[in-house]
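Predict the assembly for these two chains.
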Amino acid sequence: MESMASAAIFYGVAALVLGSALYVVVGKNLVHSAFALVAAFFGVAVFYVYLGADFLAGAQVLIYVGGILTLLLFGVMLTNRIYNLNLRSGAIQVVPGALSAGLVFALLVWIIQSVEWGAMDSGDPGPTSEAIGRLLMGDYLLPFEIASVLLLIALMGAAMLVRRRGKSGS
Amino acid sequence: MIPLEHYLYISAALFSLGVFGVLTRRNAVNVLMSIELIFNSANINLVAFSRFVEGALGGQVFALLVIVIAACEAAVALAIVMSLYRVMKNVNLDEAAELKG
């Protein structure tokens, strides 16, 4: 009974994620698209909870919903004239795009079906933050450090790119 | 429990929607949103495999690094979009063809 309820919630969330993702890519209004993206990101966080990845679910909500989405909304607002209240986004080459995306989807489904996964649910791993922390400070130390340097470079690069030219030399 | 294949199907559908968005949207910020969808679909795959393969917590570390890189990408790409807007006064990708011969 409980597992049926949890499965029902899972497929409901899956429908929500795919529906809002569809709205993001076909919707006409940019701000509505950004808010549909919020729903999609929250749904993916729910998937992480189902997969027992508690730390990742928190990181997803904090970084994607709190950070990246705010950035994207800034992008939407700053790249449109303020009196232009209907922030529209048109579509180009719809038929070739739909064909390519459909082909990619068919290929992926074919691969998923043709492989004998034989994967077993290894059970709820319990809280994972400690294990992830140990991995980041141990086996994955180099990627972790590279990621922090990359964040610094991205910060400086973004600040340099949007700086107004001609005020301080250059 | 939910079988592994269902996660893979959802992720494949999300990936295809993202590809469709990247190929068809005119607005650069909307293309960025579609790219974020693609990142998320890859992340679902990584986390699902790390759950269904015994003792493979590395998948979650990879997913975490993907989130970091997505944040970097969003910041730099939006800076580029701002610069594009300053030059072009709009961010329609099909009109940004100044370098075309």
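Chain A has a mean pLDDT of 88. Chain A touches chain B through 81 residues (CB under 8 Å).
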